[in-house]
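Run log, item B.
One chain of 317 residues. Sequence copied directly from the ordering sheet:
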Amino acid sequence: MTTAPVCVLGLGLIGGSVLQAAVRAGRTAWGYNRSADAIAGSIQAGYDTGTDLTAALTRAAESDALIVIGVPMFALDEILDAIAEHAPNNPVTDVVSVKAEVAAAVHRHGLGARYVGGHPMAGTNQSGWSAADPDLFTDAVWVVGVDDGADPDAWRAVASLALDCGSVVVPVESGEHDRAVARISHLPHVLAETLALVGAASPLALGLAAGSFRDGTRVASSSPELVRAMCEGNADALVQALDETLALLNRAREELVDERSTKTLVTAGHNARTLYEQHERFDITGVEPGDDGWLEKYRAAGRRGGVVRQIRSASPG
């Protein structure tokens, strides 16, 4: 495994947690954030943070650090411009919740050769440095991209960081990732907003609301700007998931009107939840970055529920 230095650009909940977890794992790590107020107290807490993007990237270039992009989609181009100018040869990853659009932007900026996308499947409805937690990724899934042409050394560097942060690695191609997270991440945000609106239409309902409403609307308290950036950046896949959702709800409505029953939806939904609870991971073994066919082998294993828990160091030369 590699213990390369880490440069984190954007120190919100996820980026800040990456910096803290990397430092705790013994990495040399520093971070940049545009707003000093947003990272108030980070230096006093012992973290190497600042607001000088050029200085952070110059240091990264000098040390061949792994650059981790932790800004939302609307700030991505500005960050990629700076990387292209000051650290164009560094390995680059990101923690953005969509992958195909980020990958396309990275390639437009000429940074694709050493880019491997990432997405820690962890978070809370809180945001900002003050919510960052080095334990956030413990036992969580961290997606590491296996797109065509991925550089094996860059992949190893990204996967090693994820493992150091306490996660297990799931190798996934960008398009497959976006279609999957539309269903289990982005759609739940849209449904949570909808449930919150329906409940808020009645003061009495809000006064009676308990666990199911609280849990079902939890992520509706997330930053609207961040939710919009996430959902709008994956619009096509989210529209497909919404279409399927609306079809299910329309059928449930028809059954309720015609038969006064919710049996079909409730039974199928219960069974689907059971599948989630019974889902089992298996360790991916016998594949290493750079092996013949390694990308397709990782993709196939990731689709079936495989995870990477350890990787060997690159062979010298």
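Observations after the first pass:
- The chain is about 50% helix and 10% strand.
- Residues 212 and 218 are 10 Å apart (CA to CA).
Flagged for discussion on Thursday.
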